[in-house]
Write a structure and sequence with these properties.
351 residues; mainly beta; eight-stranded antiparallel beta sheet; four-stranded antiparallel beta sheet; 19 strands
C-alpha cells in the first residue's frame, strides 16, 4: 500500500481543527484526526476554547452529544461534568469523584479566526500533556491592524501524506512542468501565450528550528518575452511539519497578502486542507482574489501527483534537483523518536 512507504503519518505540531465561527458559545465540535478523536468547544462562561478527548472516562459516551453548562462539558449519558483541565467537576449522584484530571486535553490557541491544537505523538491521548515546545506564530501585520481579513476557502480532502507538501517546496525541478503555465485564477484553464518562470530557494531558520522558509520569485513571459512589471514574489513560512504554512505575497505597487494554508491529517493519506487570508487594507479586493486564485489554480496541479505517488526513502537524485535530503533532515524533528523512516543522509544536491 502507498501509505506503507511513508514515515509516521501524524508528526508533532500545531493543527487547525476548526474555524472560530464554528464555535459559538456552548457549541461542541467532534473531530476524528491525528489518529484520535476529540471534541472542541467554546465555554458559555468566558468564551475560551477547549479541546479534549471525545469519550467520557466513565462509560465511554460520545461527549459531542452532551452540552456545555457553566463552562463545563456535561456527558449526555450520566450527566458527569468535566472541567476544562480534564478533571471531573461534578457527579450528580455522589460526592465522591476522582481527585486528579482523568480526561485527555490538548493545548489550544485561537488566533486569526481559527482554532489550533498542539499534537504530540509521544503524548497520545494523555492527561496533562506536555506544553508545546514552541508557540503558535504571531503575524504582526494582522495583530497591529495593517492587514485585515479578506476570505477563506475550505478545499476539502486531499489523499496524500502531509510530508508531500513540505517536500514539494524543495523540488525545484517540478515548477516548469507543473507550474510553468499561467492560469485563469480559480480555474483549470491556461492563458495562451503566457508562461511563468520561477526562481526558488529553501532554508531553515538558524535560530528557530521549527521554522523553514521557501522563497519563490516569478515573472511572466508573454509570447516569448519577459515582462518586467509582472515580477512578484512570495515568501512561504513553514511553522512545523506543513500543518501551518503562511504565504506572504508581495505585489509591486499594490501591497501584500498573508494567506494561511493548513493541513489536518484525517488519516495517514488524507489531509483536510483550508485556506484563510488577510491583505493590506488599501489593496483592492479583486486583486486579492486574483492573487489568491492564481495560487489555488497552481496548487491544484500538484494534487494529481500527490494522490498517486509513493515515498522513496532513497530517491535517485541528480545535479540540479533541490535540497530534498536537507528538507527531510529538518522535517525529521517532528516525527516520534521511535520512527526512523527518514534516515540521516549526507547527500545534498542543492544547486
Amino acid at each position: 500500500m502507498r501509505e506503507e512507504t511513508y514515515p509516521h503519518p501524524f508528526p508533532d505540531g500545531w493543527y487547525r481543527v476548526a474555524s472560530s465561527k464554528e464555535l459559538r458559545p456552548g457549541k461542541i465540535v467532534y473531530r476524528e484526526c491525528l489518529g484520535t478523536q476529540l471534541v472542541v468547544f467554546r465555554s458559555d462562561r468566558d468564551a475560551t476554547v477547549t479541546a479534549m478527548g471525545a469519550f467520557c472516562p466513565h462509560l465511554g459516551a460520545n461527549l459531542s452529544q452532551g452540552r456545555i453548562t457553566n463552562g463545563r462539558l456535561e456527558c449526555p449519558f450520566h450527566r458527569w461534568q468535566l472541567d476544562t483541565d480534564g478533571s471531573v467537576a461534578e457527579i450528580p449522584y455522589t460526592d465522591r469523584k476522582p481527585s486528579k484530571p482523568c480526561q485527555p486535553t490538548w493545548p489550544v490557541v485561537e488566533r486569526y479566526g481559527q482554532v489550533f491544537v498542539y499534537h504530540r505523538a509521544a503524548d497520545g491521548a494523555k492527561v496533562n500533556p506536555q506544553p508545546p515546545p514552541y508557540p503558535f506564530p504571531h503575524i504582526d501585520d494582522i495583530d497591529e491592524g495593517r492587514m485585515v481579513y479578506r476570505g477563506r476557502w475550505d478545499a476539502g480532502r486531499v489523499h496524500m501524506h502531509i510530508l508531500e507538501f513540505a517536500e514539494n517546496s524543495v523540488d525545484f525541478q517540478h515548477f516548469s512542468p507543473l507550474h510553468g503555465d499561467m492560469f485563469i485564477p480559480w480555474t483549470p484553464f491556461t492563458v495562451p501565450g503566457v508562461k511563468v518562470q520561477h526562481e526558488a530557494d529553501w532554508s531553515a531558520d538558524p535560530d528557530q528550528p521549527h521554522i523553514a522558509y521557501f522563497n519563490n520569485r516569478a515573472i511572466l513571459k508573454v509570447f516569448g518575452r519577459f515582462v518586467e512589471r509582472t515580477r512578484a514574489s512570495a515568501k512561504i513560512t513553514f511553522y512545523g511539519p506543513a500543518s501551518v504554512v503562511t504565504f506572504r505575497f508581495n505585489v509591486p505597487d499594490a501591497g501584500e497578502i498573508v494567506m494561511f494554508q493548513t493541513h489536518l491529517p484525517i488519516a495517514a493519506m488524507e489531509q483536510q486542507v483550508n485556506f484563510h487570508w488577510f491583505a493590506d487594507k488599501a489593496m483592492p479586493r479583486w486583486l486579492v482574489l486574483y492573487v489568491v486564485g492564481n495560487w489555488m489554480s497552481q496548487w491544484r496541479n500538484d494534487i494529481g501527483v500527490w494522490e498517486n505517488k509513493i515515498h522513496l526513502r532513497k530517491p535517485l537524485l541528480v545535479q540540479g534537483d533541490g535540497p530534498i535530503h536537507r528538507l527531510r533532515r529538518w522535517f525529521k524533528q517532528f516525527y516520534p523518536e521511535t520512527d526512523n523512516a527518514t534516515p540521516e543522509s549526507p547527500l545534498d544536491l542543492a544547486p
